[in-house]
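As a warm-up, study this chain.
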Amino acid sequence: MKFLSACSLMFILLICICCKQKHYADALTPEEALKSFELDENFNIEIFAAEPIVKDPVEMVFDEQGRAFVVEMPDYPYKPENGKGSGRIKMLVDTNGDNRMDKYFLFADSLLEATSILPWKGGLLVAAAPNIWYMKDTTGDFKADIKEVLFTGFFAGNSEAQITNLRFGIDNWIYASNHGQDGQVTFSKKPGSPALPMKNADFRFRLDRNQFEPETGPGQFGHTFDDFGHRFVTQNTIRIQHMVVPWRYLHRHDFLPSQKGMADISNGELTMFQRTAAPYWRAERSARRNKEYKEQQLDRIEYADGHFTGATGGTFYGGNTFPEKYSGNIFTGDVSGNLVHRDVITSLTSSPTFAASRDSIHEKNKEFLSSTDSWFRPANLTSGADGALYVIDMYRQHIETPVSIPEDLKTDMDFLAGVDKGRIYKITPKTPRSATPALVNPARLNALEIVKLLSDPSQFYRLQAQRILLERQDKTIVPAVIELFSNGSDPRTRLHAFFVLEGLSALNEGLIQKAVNDPSPGVREYGLIPAEKYPGLLPEIIKRTTDGPVRVAFQATLSLGEFPVSKSGAALVNIINNHFKDAWFRKAVLSSDPGISNEFIKKLAVSGFFSNAESEKLDFIKDLSQIKSARNQNSEMTVFLNLLADPSISKNQDWMIFALNGAAQGIKTSKIKSDPTLLKLLENISKNASQKIKTAAQQVLTASKESTTPL
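Now compare it with the structure written out below.
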């Protein structure tokens, strides 16, 4: 009897253990995982590399020689206690010609949290917080013997929010995602220079000119450019955002009510069509949270699945083998949903940004690529010289950081399960739009042959060619590049040629004027940026403020703000009258000194702007008032309010109401100490909408004139 009882107890324990283990599925072999995929019917998918050749891959890039380099991150999600990482960079090799990598060379190892690489001068730039390194093999053994720290001081905490996503832009800058994390960054080429604060920003730098600065963000893990250099980033629940206003414009002064320069272009669409069930821990955590929300009577719900929560690796397809309708799409993985989503990108006609949406016909209720394997973790994607799309699969049982999971739910979770695994898949079209291009090695070409590559239909080769020409600094090619810029039939080619000239310091006023008047809006948009430095090109910039393509007009607005109000004020008034309904144009004007001056306001009043108080106009005046109040300079707020008190304007009290509310907000954030009586008066007005506005305005004007500290 005792024996039976013992056996029964053992049986029960075994059942409990088995049940516990069944919370999470086991790994599949690479071949089994391949069978778990549902892919767009127009494409094939095959294994490009798998364990043991690759393990824990998070990024792959191809250099100018077509060599594949992979970053591996086995330490994720834990930081090694001894401070020495296990990260690796491998160069993959196919020795038997079957298109599957079967050998590797260890380019670098013992890396701490390396996440991103970028080819540069025959080596690699490596993002590994708190540093950005330059590594290069000079001996021919495919192992880096140069390891130089270029930048240091980046945030090195949570590995999901560190410096990453190194990308070479068409404007010759190298960009990186910093997730807005704080840091004090220094550059080894400029010893003794002040550290660069990084809070709320991404990062960009130029090694040809030893420049570095903050850039609009923040992006997380996913960073890409379209053919005309427009920048898009990925961030967990927001699968795609467009960087609309560069940092240098947003921070011309410190008083904008919002210095956010990025737009969620997914229209808040969070739905994804995953084929895996929510993992046990997530389903349980969401159930608990939703119960709390209900008990607290909150109008809120947390979704355990079917909604983007782990979007990552957004990548623009700029190859020329996918069918036409896929060209220019952005592909984004979701590591929680075990899928790859495809966005069709559309230019807006009334705003300088884009709309991203799923293919409503072919992917109405499904994704471009999805899996029933819950270990499939598409952390990143890349496009190669062959026009294929590569999916980098970290392949882990759990991808989430442990800090976000309740302790009791972690008891049967092994966050390192899969540390010995990893896959890279290659996606190719069943019916290519063009033949797979013969692989070219630009490193073996002479300068003029590389110039010809600027006309290649593939974004991969155009960018590789531009980067190599920038690195070599061979100015004997300038005449050939000018010819290509002047007469190239493809606007993408002309834009690359334009920036090759910029990188060789070969631009002049005439070439810039030609760019500003180029038939392609994408070229005109970029021509306006260097035009800011040429006073003689101001009429050209003003002309472009009425350009039909809205992004050209928008860049002209930003560029116009670099000129004094005496020369730019009238054009800025016309811009506001034509584009006041768009928040980005309002921000572009307000980001500049002439766009917040009283001289500009006087011209605005004469233009008829105040003839009707549309909501967007009122928002503009409120923001302008907030800026003036926060700046608190030379009694200009008093002058501004006096302008609004003019009978022709004050007959509609909304103008003054919004101005005073803006002033109340601005005075709170002002770095200049304001008169306490005036501050209290403004606060009372902003809280008491029923107060007669004429009386309120007169009180503010009187208090402002009597105050020892001007408003």
